[in-house]
Amino acid sequence: MIIGWNEFGQKVASQIVLAGQRVAFVTNSKTDLELITDLYSSKKAFTLFADYSNIEAYEKVNIEQAKRVFVNFDDDSETLVFVINLKKKFPNANIVVTCMNPSLKETFLNAGTDHVVAQNEVASKLVASYLFEPHVAAYTEDLITTSVADGDSDIKQYRITKECEFSGEEYMTAFMKLKFDFNAILIGMVKDGKVLKNPDKETVLEPKDYLILIANEQSKMKLENFFGVKEGE
Description:
Elements: E1 2-3, H1 7-18, E2 23-27, H2 30-39, E3 45-49, E4 69-71, H3 76-89, E5 95-99, H4 105-110, E6 115-118, H5 119-132, H6 134-143, E7 153-159, H7 171-182, E8 185-191, E9 194-196, E10 210-216, H8 220-227
Helix pairs in contact: 5-6
C-alpha cells in the first residue's frame, strides 16, 4: 500500500507492479486519483480517494492485510505525526517511510516504523561508489531495479516452506543447486528475521527462512515452481 502520491511514489509503484505485485493507493487529490487510474490497470492496482487524517478510511483498502505500508509524504514532520496516529489504530501495520533528514531515522523507528530509508544517505553512497568504483555502482543499481527483459538480473528472495527441497539442507547444498540448475547465485539468507550476508556453508536451512539470490527474469518462473512460492515476503 502507498499512502501519498508524487513522482517518487510513482517510480516506487512502477517497480512493484513490474515485480508482479498488486498495489493499493490512497490519495487526497482527485487529479492524482485520475492519473493513477490511467497509469495502472485495475488488475494491478486499487485507488482510494480519502482525507489522510481519516484513519478509519484505511480499513476500506485492507491495510491490516497489506504486506507493507509505504507512507509517502514530502515533509518529515507530517510523516512522523501520521505514522504515530496510524500505529495507534493499526498497531500491526508494517510501515516503511523515506525521510530527508537522516538524524530522524531513530525517531521514526521508535514511533513504530519497520523500515526507514534516508534518501540522501542512499544517494550519497551510490554517488560515492560511482566516483571510485563505477562498475560496482552500475552493477548495484542494476540489481536493485526490477527486471523487465528475460536477460535482466535482479535480487530476489524466496521463502523456504516445509515442502521445499532445501528444508533441512545445508546452505552450500542450496548454493550449488541454485547455480547449476537455475543459473542463480545465492548471496545470503534471512533467519529469525536477521539478514545473514555470508552464512557458514554448514548453516542448516529451515522453514520460514528466506534465501536471497541473484537471478534473471528468465529463471523466475522455474524458481517459483521450485520453491512453491512467489518471490518476496
